Amino acid sequence: MLLVGNGRLITRDEEKPFMEDGCVCIEGQRIAGIGGTSAMRQKYPQAEFVDAKGGIIMPGLINAHNHIYSAFARGLSIKGNNPTNFLEILDGTWWHIDRTLNLADTYHSAMVTYLDCIRNGVTTVFDHHASYGGIEGSLFRIADAARELGVRTCLCYEVSDRDGEAKMQAAVKENADFIQAAMKDDSDMQKAMMGMHASFTLSDASLELCRKNTPEGIGCHIHVAEGMDDVYITLKKYNKRIINRLFDMDLLGPHSIMGHCIHINPAEMDILKETDTMVVHNPESNMGNAVGCPPVLRLMEKGILTGLGTDGYTNDMIESYKVGNILHKHSNCDPTVAWGEIPQMLFGNNAKIGGRYFKTPLGILKAGAAADVIVMEYNPFTPLDGSNCNSHILFGMNGRNVVTTIINGKVLMKDRVMTADEERITVQAREQAADMWRRINA
Ligand SMILES: [Zn+2]
User: Fold this and answer.
1) Which pLDDT score is estimated for 189?
2) What is the pTM of this model?
């Protein structure tokens, strides 16, 4: 039994959204209940007590779209690579990196990424992986890292024709193998999807192969209309809009995630709604690649389940939350928009997306939900309660405010001290990254 108390509780449970001096009681891997700190301590005098010291206690954050394979790009410069548009960024940077990645690179990228997630209070990660330099076993190496560190995760490999038929087939097989393994795993800590790069790098035969290898109840995770090239090439080669093409290939549905959806039209939005397909918004990435502002406010207005991710830009979901808030105001020249939608994406919809894969309820502090709980150091100089906590998070906090991270009932970081050997993991990753950098510029 574990109590996390003496803090302001933000539960994300409509029945009791906020408690001024709250406490979460954890039993095993689940939350047993919430209550006042002194009452809970009296009720469970033997329980271990994690003191939030007046900070914020809230559910662990969920990242609905990340790229572990991008971890070693930090600070990297690739000889001769000076991309001037999105396609050149993909080809010269990301595809070049993923072609270089071997299984050791993938494993150490995963270790430092998950470590950074724990540091930033991210307790569940949906990842989209590519390592065409070492395909077979790559998802299993990422899964090893997630298991070692105790992070909840949903993995997939991004199938693409860009490196030829044999590698495309190996990528489908990696997804299929990992899906089978994840379906047998009853820990509710590891799930799988069928990953695909994007419509413009996948032939009809490749999409068909993906579909055939996707069991019932599993969806695909794919980038959609991130750049106009995806739209143009799909129209030119297949005479269809991207969402129409994926619909015709039977790849949409309540378990599928479409990343970005920047250049989709209203008819495609209606197909997403009709098929109950999920969308994930990655504001920083879209701005960084200069690909445009996605119509996610409209998607939400239509009732399409839209979550928030980082696309490998950061592991700090609060950073993504801040940028999402200003991107839409800036793009619409309207300071009144996105106040409600971005919090809904991060705190409401990401939990719903998690709920379509994980059995235990995520993103909420209530009895029966997953014991994924974080403590943020925060002493507000203005009044804080359940009605304005999202604004306090927006303007007063970032991922570095997280001091304690608990996942699946295990304390993985307490008062900024990790249970994992942070120093060893970082040193090993740095050596591996230096080796990868030598290979990429050889
Ligand atoms: Zn992505």
Assistant:
1) 98
2) 0.98
